[in-house]
Amino acid sequence: MRILWYNWRDIKNPDAGGAEVFTHEVCKRLIKQDGIDSITIFAASFDAAFAEEKIDNVRIVRRGNKYSVYSEAKKFYQQNRDGFDIVVDEINTKPFNTPSFVHDKPIVALIHQLAREFWFYETRFPVNVMGYFFFENYWLRKYRDIPTITVSRSTEEDLSRLGFKHVTIVPEGLDFEPLQG
Length: 181
Prior knowledge:
single chain, alpha/beta, Rossmann fold, eight-stranded mixed beta sheet, 8 strands
């Protein structure tokens, strides 16, 4: 199986956070599984980033910036669709809108949390009010029937309230060496 995984950032992005760590940890483990031939993470570029590189046997492809990565993702899929068997749309505030252009492969959505508070911290009026009350609900409507992964019961409940029908919780974990005593 060849996986295309959309995320707005990758593990090396200076703005990467917990979602990107989670994604990278999952991908570097998945690639070791029988039946997984390749994983490509498609993300936004950033200053001094390579356009492509391999990290822990996971291919990273970077195009566009934090705003244009979404349109670049669609172009990338249209040019490379035969190279993938499944698409993961990791949604961090704004989805990649894969249901509108991926019609020939299964899609899985990954949503860590809804972006409710983000709108008021990261955007100004009137965008913050529109985002909170309209954008997120509108964007996510297309994903209601798509298999969706989340990391917590609270987000699963939020998604259920939005009409999501197929939500699976995959709890986050820790990767550390135990102390030797």
